[in-house]
Amino acid sequence: MFNIFISCDENYAPHLATTIVSIISNCRTPEMLNFIIGDGGLSSLTTSRLNKMIKSKGAAVEYVYLDEEKFEGLEVKRYGLSIYFRLYLDEVISEDITDILCIDCDTVVVSDILQIKKHVTMDDYTIAAVENIGRSPYKSLGLQKGDYFNCGLMLINMNQWRKKNIGKKALSFLRKHPELCLYPEQSSLNKIIEGQWTKLPITWNAQRPAYKIIEKRLAEQHRPKHEFVESIQAPNVIHYMGKNSKPWDKHTLHPLRDVYFFYRAKTPWPLNTQKPKRNLYKSLKHCLSLQKIFLYHKRRNMSKPLIKAHSQR
After folding, report:
1. Coil, helix or strand at residue 55
2. Cβ proximity of 197 and 149 under 8 Å
3. From the CA atom positions of the chain, what is the Rg in Å?
4. Three-state DSSP class for 61?
């Protein structure tokens, strides 16, 4: 079985379902998938819907929980409790699980997720991920540029995770130095790993700042330009991270929002998934200038084949 861990609360349930259905839809052997959901407060109705959706496609699902006392001393107002589940992986998943994919529920997967394993050899990695594209707080953590990874997708060797006590060390650092952890679990994990992680192709965590890197011809010493181009034209995973990037937000500026709605329509939460209708004046006021609207459509054209393949029919 290929184990996939996603944590979520009730507010993000429709997006969780969208991520899951995108994974199942593009996997040639969905019966190989086992979804482990970190339950951060899902309702019984939600879990019932998820169970039916997942099991009807031949995949498996289970739920894990944490007592609230585990989160004592951690910032929860901004991010919620669910983001911290990953730091307790060794406590919430079975000891016989040797590797697991952790993925955020603001992602969609547009290729066979099982293909990600070809990029690692089981014994020689702890975490395989993609660097955080764009601005990253690597300097404050004493890291080099390109060594700060994004937690939106991580393939984790649980044998190494347990052996090195990564989760416990990250929690300890987070509690002692919250001022250094701009993104709580992400920054703390980066500090503990300290650059000793395996880089996946950027296509496995395609992030919106890649458009800017291509347009501005920014110097990215850790990756060649063609990898950034591939990440927006033929991504494996789209990560809707950052301000104005969530497809469900009224003023989203993410060029690939249509792909999200394509998979959202396949979930038990298809209502209110129409692309947000824009009042032109309000949109212009929000964007501040026509330039941003022009840039938005320019970026959509850069990914036109992908958008067309996921257009609603």
Report:
1. helix
2. yes
3. 19
4. strand
Determine the Cα–Cα distance for residues 213 and 79; give it in Å rounded to an integer.
28
Cβ-proximal residues to 65 (8 Å cutoff; 6+ apart), any chain: 38, 39, 92
Domain 2-203 maps to which CATH number in 3.40.50.2300, 3.90.550.10, 3.40.50.410, 1.20.1540.10? 3.90.550.10
Strands (E), 116-266: 127-131, 149-157, 198-199, 206-207, 237-239
pTM: 0.90
CA-wise closest residue to 240 among 227, 230, 255: 255
* 44-65 pLDDT per residue, tens: 999 999 999 999 999 999 999 9
Crossing angle of helices 225-233 and 209-216, rounded to 10° = 130
Cβ contact 8:107 at 8 Å? no
* Pair of tokens at residue 124: 């020689």
Token couple for 259 = 């792909």
**For the chain, domain boundaries:** 2-203
Q: How many CB atoms lie within 10 A of CB 130?
A: 24
